[in-house]
Structures are given as C-alpha cells and as structure tokens.
Write a structure and sequence with these properties.
14-stranded antiparallel sheet; AttH-like fold
C-alpha cells in the first residue's frame, strides 16, 4: 500500500485537523484527516457554564485497541468514566469460534489508572488492578517514536504488541455535538501493522501478518448513551461506521491511502439474534456490506448508578465499497472486523 494519500481517490479530501477541538468557545465541528496533539474541553463555553462535578462525571475517555490476525481477534480497552475506571480484554479463537478469555475489572480514577488527553502521540492509557496491568503508550515517548506499545497481564493472558504508525495513511479526527451531551472528539486509526505475541494460560502464539486499529475517544457525554459501531481493516482498505449519539461524524473509508468521508450508516440486524448476519450500508451509495459473525464478546451489567448492555460480534465483511458514488464498486470479501451494539448509563 502506498503510504502517501492517493489524492485522485479523495473526493473530497478532508481538511487537516485544527490546533484545538474548541475555537473561540465553540466546538470546531468537522471531520479531519490527521492527528491532533491534545483534546482539551477547558475553553468550551458550554462546559464552563456547568459545575465542576457535572464536568467530572460526564467527561468520558477511552482507548480501544483491536488486533486482527488469521486465527485470532483480540480486543482491549481502558476506560475513564470520570468517577470510575474500567478495563477489559478478550481473545477470540477464530478456528474454534470461541471466546477463549474474557476479562474485565473496575477501579478508581487516578489510583487504578488514567487515559491521557493526548489521543495518540505522547499520550498513555494505563490500568492497574488486582493481578492485572494494561498499558498503551508510545514505544519511546522521549524521542517522539511513531510506534505504540500495547502490554497486557490479566486473567492468564500476557500480551506484548507494537503498532507501527510510521507509514500510516491519515488518521480520522472527528469533532462535534452529541445527543444529550456537550461535545465529543474521536481519533480513529487506519489499519496498522502489528507485531508481537501473546501467551494464554502458558501457551505462546506469535501474531503474524496482524493488523491493529485504534479508537481514542474523549467527550462530555450524556448519562444515557447508545450506539452501533462497525470497524474492519487490512493493508489496503478499512472503515469506521457509527449509528447513534455521534451521528455520521466518524463514518469514513480508508482506501489505497486515502481517507474518504461516508454518509449516514444504517445497521440492519436482529438484536435478539446478534450472531445472525448483519446488513450495513451508507446513504451515499459508497458502502454496502454483509457481516457474518463468528462469535461475540458480550456483557450485561446493572449496578443502579451505572449499567452497560454490550455485544461485540467478531466476523467477516462481504460486499462492496466505492471511492465516490460515481466510481465502480470495489469488492470486499472476508475482511475481518467487529460490529457492536452498546447501551450505557454512565
């Protein structure tokens, strides 16, 4: 894949990121191609009108990593809810079509960890818990290294992976208003070469030809938040789709090094049968895919002050995408990724 953006395919090209997600007290709403150094809501006029307690409880940050390989899919996240910390990691065996590890733990912000406001370079997400540690950080922050180290020790899993950002196509930065909240920003990556290994219950597996992807999100969100999400990547093609609280702000397609905006996404599936096939398409005629689940990680929790109803199926996408509505369809066959249906009270 050409590491440079293919401008011929970029119709239209997205602008470069602004210096800040806030401009003159207001959201600098838009979709941008590139990375932002820091997500800072302190200058947002609407936030200044809310109490410090409201801002603390409604400020949500998370760092998610997806690792896709021929026989495995691994998903992990570190989440700062403002009033609590949470982390999870799961390992899905594609040959057995089975979740081999599903670990999660809660903790206290500051004491158990943090998610920094620097979404990629210079930032860090860390969780320390009972017999567990998860860390996502630059390989060499003192020299501005363009690689991320992912380290996990949790629930019988040991994982060490590096993600190479040095030749990556543009990241997506999406900024905008959200339903019931004040604002949200997310930095999504294209497919990133991933190298490393993991040990599960004493058995080591080397990740060969793996692809990683990042979701670095930060927002002042509503207490009740819901979304549907889909993400999949390989060396040439990838996409990120969301239907819910953030509208179509983060809907994009990566194709041959170009980052292309997509329209509103529709997810057609049976919530009572989430492992049945899904149909996902965008209203601009640039993406139409069928998703075939192989298995899923799911969790349902309700502890009164907080609740989460979550399922993330792992599987393959089949169908087509286009570089623009007028361009010919490009087949997609067997692209490994995930979908998600998620409702939170947080």
């Amino acid at each position: 894949m050409n590491p440079m953006t293919n401008l011929d395919a970029c119709e239209p090209c997205l602008p470069l990121p602004p210096p800040s997600v806030v401009n003159d007290g207001e959201l600098d709403t838009g979709r941008y191609a590139g990375r932002i150094a820091r997500i800072d809501w302190s200058g947002l006029r609407a936030a200044q009108q809310r109490s410090a307690l409201w801002r603390r409880c409604h400020h949500k940050r998370w760092q998610y990593v997806g690792l896709a390989a021929e026989h495995w899919f691994i998903g992990l996240a570190i989440v700062d809810l403002g009033w609590a910390m949470s982390a999870f990691v799961y390992v899905f065996d594609r040959q057995r079509r089975q979740v081999m590890l599903d670990w999660s733990q809660d903790g206290l912000p500051g004491l158990s960890g943090w998610v920094r406001d620097q979404p990629v370079q210079g930032g860090e997400a860390r969780f320390r818990g009972l017999g567990a540690e998860l860390c996502i950080r630059p390989v060499a922050p003192e020299v501005a290294s363009d690689a991320l180290a992912v380290r996990v020790v949790a629930g019988g899993l040991r994982l060490q992976v590096e993600l190479d950002l040095s030749h990556a196509p543009p990241f997506l930065l999406a900024v905008g208003p959200v339903q019931g909240g004040l604002g949200h920003a997310t930095q999504k990556s294209p497919g990133l070469p991933a190298t490393g290994w993991f040990e599960l219950h004493g058995q080591r597996h080397v990740l060969q030809g793996a692809t990683g992807s990042l979701d670095s999100s930060n927002g002042l969100l509503a207490r009740e938040t819901a979304w549907r999400w889909a993400s999949a990547h390989d060396g040439r093609l990838g996409f990120n789709l969301q239907q819910g609280y953030f509208g179509n702000q983060e809907n994009v397609l990566w194709l041959d090094g170009a980052l292309l905006p997509l329209g509103a996404a529709t997810f057609v599936f049976d919530p009572a049968r989430p492992l049945a096939p899904w149909h996902i398409h965008t209203d601009d005629g640039m993406l139409d895919l069928r998703f075939r689940p192989e298995g899923a990680r799911q969790a349902r929790r309700d502890v009164w002050i907080a609740a989460s109803d979550y399922i993330q199926p792992v599987g393959t996408f089949h169908g087509w995408v286009r570089a623009s509505p007028s361009k010919p369809a490009i087949p997609v066959e067997g692209l490994l990724g995930v979908t998600e249906d998620h409702r939170s009270r947080w």
